[in-house]
Specification:
This is ISGsu4, transposase. By secondary structure, the protein is α+β, with helices and mostly antiparallel strands. The chain contains 16 helices and 9 strands. Strands 1-7-6-5-2-3-4 form a 7-stranded mixed beta sheet.
């Protein structure tokens, strides 16, 4: 976990809530200048209070659900903004007494002492596409649940099975009803079946349109080049490519491939003390969407015979679980250098010339 390094004279910690906030302003030595409540989250009023310190101020808050509006306000004004990782701000959660006034002071203390666990605050102009893509992934999960329920419902009630093709490409939900024959007394069963068929059709149509819109947005944006670069690797299609591009955003913010791999959650961090190992920690540090994406890529990349042979070798040498982790890590490092160097996937760079020639000979 990296800590935010502040460079300003004054520091403002905000305990942000839905309808109010509590702010605390301190200097580097810990002297308190302002410690008050901001009703209705009136940030213009907050700026008026903080005006004596505004030109040399850093504002920080936790990653609560509503940090967007504070971040946008700081970007507009402008003033330095730092986002703290809520899960790892233990100083806030560990006190005997806890209230908004105390929390705002603790956030300020973490900020001024350079101990604020840093989370990434994505700029406003890039957030909307990323959030739409995240919502799309959630809706796919819901649609899959409806499709599975429909299949189980057919089995449970001895109905004809709707094909996977029909569930993907039905022109109307009535096609599901035409497939079945319900008895007159089974009107509730028929209504249940129709309800789920209607929901499945609605979700399917919306997701198809969202996919088209997302691809169009990406091709019309500054991410077009990165999108085409990551798609050059076997196993990466439109959705996984957009996930990598939007969740990474700017590869330059990662100094090393190890930093990127850690952010993507494809490496584990050991807990050690006095020469003893106590397992692993930090499993929730990083980006869960990138972890999911690299897990999917590791499976889909095996459609390439050389990749599959290499992955199978890792499984034989290290076991399936560790072999898959090593494979994911190698793919992650490859994506890092592809985005950094603006170069498409090259199997010789990925494997090394000697290993690539050996694997190619074995495959053929």
């Amino acid at each position: 976990m990296k800590m935010y390094t502040t460079k300003t004279k004054f520091h403002c910690g905000i305990d942000l809530h839905k309808s109010m906030s509590y702010i605390c302003v301190m200097d580097k030595e810990g002297k308190i200048y302002v410690h008050t409540e901001i009703k209705n989250n009136d940030f213009q009023y907050m700026k008026k209070i903080l005006s004596p310190y505004w030109d040399d101020l850093t504002i920080a808050c936790e990653t609560t659900y509503n940090w967007y509006k504070l971040s946008d306000f700081c970007e507009t004004e402008p003033v330095q903004f730092a986002l703290g990782h809520a899960l790892y701000m233990g100083a806030i959660h560990g006190g005997k007494a806890k209230n908004d006034k105390i929390d705002s002071k603790k956030i300020t203390d973490l900020l001024r002492t350079n101990l604020l666990p840093k989370a990434y605050a994505c700029p406003r102009r890039f957030r909307s596409h990323r959030d739409l893509l995240r919502r799309r992934i959630k809706l796919v999960s819901i649609r899959s649940g409806i499709s599975i329920y429909l299949n189980l419902f057919e089995d449970q009630n001895n109905l004809k099975h709707s094909s996977a093709e029909l569930r993907r490409n039905a022109k109307s939900s009535l096609q599901f009803m035409d497939l079945q024959t319900f008895l007159p007394e089974d009107h509730a069963m028929a209504r249940n079946y129709q309800l789920n068929a209607d929901l499945l059709k609605m979700f399917t149509d919306q997701l198809k349109q969202i996919d088209k819109d997302l691809v169009k947005f990406t091709l019309d944006s500054q991410f077009k080049e990165d999108f085409e670069i990551v798609k050059s690797m076997k196993g990466i299609g439109d959705i996984l490519g957009m996930t990598l591009v939007y969740e990474t955003h700017d590869i330059q913010r990662f100094k090393t491939p190890g930093d990127y791999a850690s952010y993507c959650r494809v490496v584990k961090c050991k807990k050690e003390s006095a020469g003893k190992s106590y397992g692993y920690s930090g499993t929730k540090m990083g980006n869960p969407n990138l972890k999911w994406a690299f897990g999917e890529i590791a499976m889909l990349a095996k459609s390439d015979p050389v990749m599959k042979f290499f992955a199978d070798e890792l499984d034989q040498r290290h076991g399936k679980r560790k072999g898959r982790s090593i494979f994911m890590h190698k793919i992650c490092r490859a994506i890092y250098f592809m985005l950094l160097r603006k170069k498409p996937f090259d199997p010789i760079d990925f494997f090394g010339r000697e290993k690539y020639e050996r694997l190619t000979k074995k495959v053929h």
